[in-house]
Design brief:
heterodimer, A: 22 helices, 2 strands, globular, disordered C terminus, B: mainly alpha, two-stranded antiparallel sheet
Chain lengths: 527, 489
Amino acid sequence: MASIPWLSFLVFFPLVAAVLLALLPKSAERSVRLWATLAAAIEFAVSLPLWWRVIPGAPGFQFEESLPWIPVIGARYHIGVDGVSGLLALLTTFMTLIAILGSWTAVEKRSKEFYALVLALQAGMLGTFFCLDLLLFYVFWEAMLIPMYLLIGVWGGQRRIYAAVKFFLYTMAGSVLMLVAILWLWQLQKATNGVPSFDLATYYALAISPDKQLWLFLAFAIAFAIKVPMFPVHTWLPDAHVEAPTTGSVILAAVLLKMGTYGFLRFAMPMFPNALIVCAPWIAWIAIIGIVYGALVAMVQPDLKKLVAYSSVSHMGFCMLGLMALNSQGLAGSTMTMLNHGVSTGALFLLVGVIYERRHTRAIADFGGLWKIIPVFSVIFLIVTLSSIGLPGTNGFIGEFLVLLGAFKTSVAWAAVASTGVILSACYMLWMFQRVVFGPVTHEENRRLGDLTIRERLVFAPLLVLIFWMGVAPQPFLDRMQPSLDRVLALVKERAVASATAAGVAPPAGLVVSPTAVATPEGEARR
Amino acid sequence: MNIVPQPNFLPVDWWALGAILALTVGTLVLLLMEFIPPRPNGNRGALVALATLGVSAYAIWNVRFDKRSLFEGMFVHDGLTVFFTLLFCAIGVVAVLFSWDYAKRTKMGQPEYYALLLCSIMGMIVMAGSNDLITIFLGLELMSLALYVMVGFRRNLLESNEAALKYFLLGAFASGFLLYGIALLYGGTGTTNLARIGDFLGDTPIGTNPLVLVGSLLVLTGFLFKVAAVPFHMWTPDAYQGAPTSVTGFMSAGAKAAGFAALLRIVMRALPTMQHDWAPLLAVIAMLTMTVGNVTALLQTNLKRMLAYSSIAHAGYILVALVAGGNEGYGAAVFYLAVYSFMNLGAFALMTMLGKGTDEPVLISDLAGVGFKKPLAGLALTLFMISLGGIPPTAGFMGKILVFNAAVKAGLIWPLVIVGVLNSVVSVFYYLRVTVAMYMREPEGEPVAWSWNVPGVVAVLITAGLTIYFGLQSQGLWIEAQRSVLGLL
């Protein structure tokens, strides 16, 4: 299998499948969901070896493919995988399959185009996770917007056009500045090494003076922060989530938001370490504001989807906080939270989709007393809710605990304020759960609700397995991501010192690098 | 004034002039063809035009690696000439293809239409290949006069007449500026030959010679009129909206490319110091052009008018490349012109097929529901809009990258590049409106009718293919574009 371009297959198989789906005759509208599920299942099956074939701790990237693309400007088709991108790619293929399976009855019109776009989106997302070339990254990053834009705009709710355009423009506005930064870097790289290149590895080795780094870092950080989304540029997210069809919401929450944090981890942090160290406290505080703000706003939402959307803002705040802690626990917690959030929030959106399909409303006030009527749904909803809160034993706990641990090591104040987010999340989730599921049946229409069908149970079963697996035995996940994360930290430290030395300024103090170094007083010194 | 071949007039020179010669013959044939009564369903005008363009391209292709200076250095055959001649021939072929049915449908299928089209392409080629201010002016007038007539070709339509008159008056005004500038440059340097002007001026800044200063300013103004840069853009929306759609498409690509081709040669060859002296001025014009074009386009409900403002904005992007200068900047401008031509022609090719008979739906809202009713048309128009918006993986994105890359290299990040990229975000908003209409709105009443025809579809396929191809693999075009600006004669 080594001779077959495995990663390329993963990236382009969904695209080919999308084209084939689009070419199906009109009469195939009904069978198209089967074909789409089949394609997503094949994709997931082929991606499964990412779990065991990507060797944790192997240096650099694995299964690299590197072909010249536009040699005159040094752009290459260079893709590869490491522990973090491997896990995120698995999340992508898994959640896409779940999302497609979960939408079998939800898409009533133009299902052919719908599934083709979902698969094209998957190709874009995998390309973004795998690429190791800045130009290629930018191409995937922006090209990905188009299918998502259409998914929201065509199959969305009432204000879908507003939401779709807003989604597109926000992301685009952030990323054009990143494009300028990429071009500036390209010029610097060419001037330094004499050869044009967009290859990420050359940029990992490029010394950039700290004052320049600040601007470059900001350009990248704004692009990624919009995608995460961080407070105060999160406003596109509630709109997009509420208006998107269930499948779109699930993919948006599960994977697209991770692009932002992944971008920090892969690009912004290792490339501009000095700027990162300067900005980290600021970003951390913004993340903390996001955690608390997202939670508070979530609490007062009358709409289930909007509530889950704001809870995403809060959870992604934890991801960012973990990254900015700049230590091993923080990064691991952040990556765990990315995966957890993907699974839990994806599941929440699916659950909301289930009742929306039956009742065509998402207002919390329209429900109540569901426990007696649809017990299976309610139990699953309970488990997912608890996992989203971060109850020990579920996946949510591990991620948030590690993030808070990492934040605590860097600054007690960060951890203290961020912890309130955990409490608030319990408030808004449980209150919502109480209003929807417990109590008397307030609406007669709800008495006729049907419980989960076999297909829906099949969709939720693997999600529940994952919730408990990651909650009880997270070590296999942590083992896979840890070496890659340590490498990021090592890069940050090495490059911070190298860039500072090259520029003739004192290297930044107080970086915690490896798990063994965690206990050193450096963490204390930072406070 | 001996135009009989000199002893040193080699066969290669005949080939180099082949495009112009072929176009002359083609134009004359088309005009004389009227004496033979046409067959009722034939389209011999278009066929002759296609054949002529084919021969022209073939002649130039044969000698694409040669460099010749002809007519005492008034016309040169070099990389820039070859690149633009081939581009103009391609633009012409696509324009003939989408005019094929449209011209017949809207009752303007006379051979004169194609004769004028060839005539204006000839003007464009002369502009790109001229190494002398006089021949540049000649080419410009040849192109413009033909275009004035073409804009007013639907002579029963009031807005077509209005457009032609406006275009003519403002165009003549611009020609006046240009001619006056040429006269002053001649007064200041004693020659109209670009190379000799360049030699005469050497490294002296333009400001030291008032005649040259004012002259080059006026020449610049004349060209800024032609390429529709702010504040000389006023004619564009009206001319674009009123002209027959096929003519709008043709001139939005061809006239702009020709204007920039001549401007590029003047800037590179005659006034190399101008780039340095006037970069700030041009930068301001570029920013204004991008911003005014894009912001005004936001408000348009008419697709043609929107694309007119979009074409103004694109002139702004190309000016960014011009401000950046250097091989990379000029190469990026050439590259951008090529990809802009294809994506814009593609959009207009689709528009020529909208509607039945003489009826022409041109409102963006007319496109409601097209995306799912006519999936391929929707897909193609989406592609062109995405490309015009500079979103990967399309040619427009690569063009944007190269233009801004050159500007970044020239150290123009703030404010030029930042304004430029933010403008591209603004532009995405109105390009998306087209996709919103096509995919996200249901038609009120009857969905829009289409006049499908094979040549029009071929035009769309060619342009769509190139838009995707240059988006995925721009290596070849980028090398050619850079080569074209190297080693000018």
